[in-house]
Amino acid sequence: MAMLEIKNLHVTIEGKEILKGVNLNLEVGKINALMGPNGSGKSTLANALMGNPKYEITIGSIHFKGEDITLLEPDERARKGVFLSFQYPSEIPGVTISSFLRTAINARRENKIPVMEFNKILDDKMKILSMDKKFKTRYLNEGFSGGEKKRAEILQLTMLNPDLAVLDETDSGLDIDALRMVSQGVNAFMGKDKCILIITHYKRILEYIKPDTLSIMIDGKIAQQGTGELVDQLEEKGYSWIQEDQ
Length: 246
Description:
The chain is of the alpha/beta class. The chain has one domain (about 1-240): P-loop containing nucleotide triphosphate hydrolases (Rossmann fold), CATH 3.40.50. Helix content is about 35%, strand content about 30%. It contains 8 helices and 12 strands. A 6-stranded mixed β-sheet has the order 6-9-10-3-11-12, with helices on both faces. Strand 9, helix 6 and strand 10 (about 195-200) form a beta-alpha-beta unit. The mean pLDDT is about 90.
């Protein structure tokens, strides 16, 4: 069963078309990887899925769990269970990680989560990511290293517990230890009722988070699809062999 169905999606930014007819189905219980050269439209797709208003959908549709969400606002998509881990997370001075997460969780609940229950869940999730408890009192992403920002993103993922996680270059700038911790958090989140889309340039994160499917984006379209083993061909040949077939 498809959790996400993208049909003939065309997206423009400031009048320039970036996505030129993307078709992609993501099934429940599957980890999906999306790769492609710089400028192929991968991050544009991520932003379009989350409803970033800078990215105009001119043709096509996005269906999430059978519902057309093409025109929904970002907060509405988030409430329905769509999560985007940003490539470059923003700093929010004055707002602690703990306060931010409680507010975000309560936005998806009819009744506010009790403080003790929230703190217990938060401590458990932070252990998975090997995060010091002092981390939760820090202002969101302010003064964070690249690895700390990415771990904070994955902490948000595990706390908010969405149905669909779109991870846009979560491995960018991570050293090997941080990559392992982030991957551990992603694997702990994944379950038979979840779906993940990992957008990446590199093979290394896919050695820790094993994809069921791999799609290659070239010039705003899905040019090739296969299993996770397709990444080995990319490692050996690059993208040129796919581009030559287009």
